[in-house]
Amino acid sequence: MATVRKVPLRRLVGLASLRANIIPTLTKIKLVDMLSETGLPVIEVTSFVSPKWVPQMADHTEVLKGIQKFPGVNYPVLTPNLRAFQTAVAAGAKEVAVFVAASELFTKKNVNCSTDESFQRCDEILKAARVAGIPVRGYVSCVLGCPYEGKISPAKVAKVTKKIYSMGCYEISLGDTIGVGTPGLMKAMLSAVMQEVPVSALAVHCHDTYGQALANTLMALQMGVSVMDSSVAGLGGCPFAQGASGNLATEDLVYMLAGMGIDTGVNLQKLLEAGAFICQALNKKTSSRVAQASCKL
What we know:
Blueprint: E1 9-12, H1 25-36, E2 42-44, H2 60-66, E3 77-78, H3 82-90, E4 96-101, H4 104-111, H5 115-132, E5 136-141, H6 154-166, E6 171-176, H7 183-193, E7 202-206, H8 213-222, E8 228-231, H9 250-259, H10 268-282, H11 289-296
Parallel strand pairs: 1-2, 1-8, 3-4, 4-5, 5-6, 6-7, 7-8
């Protein structure tokens, strides 16, 4: 197995699923600015979803326009349809992300359409992005389980991933949306997907509902995946997957990789400060074990 010396980490803001009071726009902007100072190369800033469905993201344009753009840092945004893509580009987006699911029922609940219709929406965005010179990343949800369909076969995940990759996404993030996966399931799923899509175009996106996110991410790393999604303080979840906990905490991922001798280029102390800031703003305890331990030292 090749030695991975530098792992690009993608940081997800992780605020969309929070059902508490709406977070002030300036708080979101400050969080992104603090994260930009940590050395993270990619920070997914916001989601251009309808405020009707996700009120927490109603200020997407203001947030994207308000953040400082650090040299060498990419600030992609999520765009569920062509109209959202157009709004995002008008607001200054230089990279976008689209999403599909390996589950028909989850697609219906999440974006109120069939899987085929979901692919059509992605295709519209990808065609427009190609004309505009905007790179597009793809997400595949429910790769290790679905809240409505239960187990999802690796073959189905591979089929969906191959299709969205062939449509033009430069990278596909495979999401354990409800956090039910284990390293064994991750290995089986990735083995199937890697037969259809090069590992260099894959990333993983693990939720920590059952405490398996770090182990699952390590399994992916050992199989050659070198891009990992995570969220500061372990924030996140999914508005349409009840019971799903947040993403893998960025602090925990950076600590593990540093202990393996892998250079991420991320300043852990600054990351801890960003996590402490947003947790204080939310009046919420961090889900990062590293942050919890650091407070006790």
